[in-house]
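In line with agreed milestones, the collection of sequences with tokenised folds has grown. One record among many is set out beneath this paragraph:
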Amino acid sequence: MVFDLLGKFAHFRVFYANANALTYTFPPRTTLTGILASILGRSRDTYYEDMGPENLKLALRVVEPVRKRMVAVNYVKTESFPAEVKITKRAARISVGYFETYPTRMEILMSKGGGFLRFRVYLSAKIYSLHEELKDRLRSNSPHYSLYMGISEFLAWTEFVGEYEAQDVITDEVLSVVPERLFESLDFSSLKEAFVEKIPLHFRLNGGLRAVSETATFINSNGHAVKFKKDVPAVKVGDETIIWME
């Protein structure tokens, strides 16, 4: 099954950054499963097993080339609002000057061409009921919860592309992001542009707390096809050739 994820801006926070809020150039697998859970109406921390690598295969293609921009933002510490202050639009406006605020910088992702970001998501669910419910909601464009690109300020929406029979193939070119296990086979001289990203793949609960259980490194060619020096195993979905993240 294939669908597109769209939005004007995005911020997929780099989990290991400890200074400014940096962003990945594409949504990590954990972000994608969170979006799928929002579409289905699953509660936080309840979907990790059903959408783990053993039950759900995912691949991602950057359709519209992206660029990053560092912006200044000013957060209001809303927990410092007195109980007697009713939070209205007017109260929110005056609070910036009256209550404690703190400025910071945040890296945001946007389309290089100035339009909408567009990421193509490919998925194959082992659990039949999960697959069918996702298909129904994606086709009817009826997510249970509102979707967003990493943070709630950046709203997102989906466009259903289709359902296809995946075919295992051998090829020297793919359109998706490429995992580290295939880096040695890459034809780096053919890359017009590339981002190397270390992303979280999966969450697990550890003592009731969410923890990253697995990470992996990928190359994002920013909207261009990725070529290899020799043929590698891949998957053909419709007219597009991709490699699963897992």
